[in-house]
Amino acid sequence: MKIELLYPELSTVYGDAGNALYLKKSCKDAEFIETPLQKKPYFVDNDVELILLGSMTEKSQLFAINALKPYVNRIKELIEAGVVFLCTGNSMELFGEYIAEDDEKWEALGIFPFYSKRSSEYFRHNSMFLGDFEDIEVVGCRSQFAYIYSKCDTPFMKVKGGIGNNPEDESEGIHYKNFFATYVLGPILPLNPKLTKHILSLAGFKGDVAFEKEAMDAYNLRLTKLKEEGVNFILGEHW
Asked: What is the share, in percent, of the chain residues with pLDDT greater than 70?
């Protein structure tokens, strides 16, 4: 199995690099290709089973969009072929139509019909999250400057606690074939071993994930706490 880690030097925000570390611990026989920003992605000329992209700064988003634009058709081809993508945090915004802030608008990759809108005051939204993906309950947290407004009819999760793609949306993320995009952090993979096993199974991985017993114990405890009456999911906004 080949796993491409896109732009690891950019994807260092909100602990999202922990997803790559967890994959390396779980898939010890996999080949990991780390592609820096200035290099052509490995997936352009080669087959891969999983592509991972994580959170980055707002300025880095524009660098990543420009780097990926020449390969939009190849990305679409891989998505249609069932290659697994996991895009976490604000990396999800790269795959929409555009990113807006006040009177400015930056064209994104245009692969899915949604757009992202940042707060003009640069308030950061922080919250905990509980949602359903098929028969898997997903836990995590969110920390973001933007919301997405989507015309996609294939959300990733149904919200049970916290917010969705925006405060008025009861769905969260994008899920199409084996493309998964979500604002949920944590990092999401070590916090959700059931979800991790499901996503890896789509890429052909069989077996246990790293520290599975300990990860499941932590997951079950977090799940119990998030289901307690009176839990305050929304932690607020700040500069």
From this structure: 97
